[in-house]
Specification:
The protein contains eleven helices and no strands. The longest helix is centred in the N-terminal third of the chain and has 26 residues. It is globular and about 60 Å long.
């Protein structure tokens, strides 16, 4: 029997996730270059062709949440269209931190994952490519929200500053975790500084229009005063 469309999609999603989980486990254990697509297929109990049906490359097997991150950004900014772009982005980040979203959660599993990434030049390059795509997406979303052309330089500047502060904060969170500290407490001040710097850099533009945005004290305090989140597994 052919399962109904909804069930078929669910099975495809489950198969995709299972393959990715197996690949991530093997690559963390042995290293990215030491694991072949055929070995991943055998360990997952599927054919090599099936693996390629879901993932075009081994890098995509590791970074299987690339599109999820981009979709989350698009939907998060769209849901906050009534806010100025800077406030919308900071509100989205705060909510992801408060809920312990996997994309911002830092724990032992995340530390192992990023340690593996750091050991492979191919994976480092792919991670940087994802960062560039997210920056492009954010710049376009900011420009569209402000009614400016998608290539607007102010939007590009703001998006680059915000995304760089997020990457820096996450990296610091990983370092603090390795020393037994609280990653969130390390991340928040850096994210706030990034927002403050962007607020200054884009002063006088639609991205920080005083008539529409929150007072700067509220913007800065939004993350600083948010309650801590209990860490969960990867």
């Amino acid at each position: 029997m052919i399962p109904p469309p909804g069930r078929r999609e669910q099975r495809k999603a489950e198969t995709r996730q299972a393959i990715s989980d197996v690949a991530t486990r093997l690559i963390i254990e042995r290293g990215f270059e030491a694991v072949s697509m055929s070995e991943i297929a055998d360990a997952a109990g599927v054919s090599r062709k099936t693996v390629f049906n879901y993932f075009a490359s081994k890098e995509q097997l590791v970074f299987d949440r690339d599109e999820e991150a981009r979709q989350l950004l698009r939907e998060g900014m769209a849901a906050r269209a009534s806010m100025t772009p800077l406030v919308a982005f900071q509100t989205l980040v705060r909510e992801l931190l408060d809920t312990g979203h996997p994309l911002l959660r830092i724990n032992a599993g995340a530390a192992s994952f990023w340690k593996t990434v750091a050991q492979s030049a191919v994976l480092v390059a792919h991670a940087r490519q994802l960062q560039a795509l997210l920056t492009d997406d954010l710049a376009q979303l900011m420009a569209e929200s402000a009614g400016r052309p998608v290539e607007d330089a102010d939007a590009r500047l703001g998006a680059s500053m915000l995304m760089a502060s997020m990457v820096t904060a996450y990296e610091q969170g990983l370092r603090v975790l390795s020393c037994g500290g609280d990653p969130r407490q390390a991340m928040v001040p850096l994210i706030v500084r990034g927002a403050t710097g962007t607020l200054v850099a884009l002063a006088g533009t639609p991205y920080t229009d005083p008539a529409q945005r929150l007072p700067s004290a509220l913007l800065i305090g939004a993350l600083d005063e948010a309650p801590a989140t209990t860490a969960r597994g990867p």
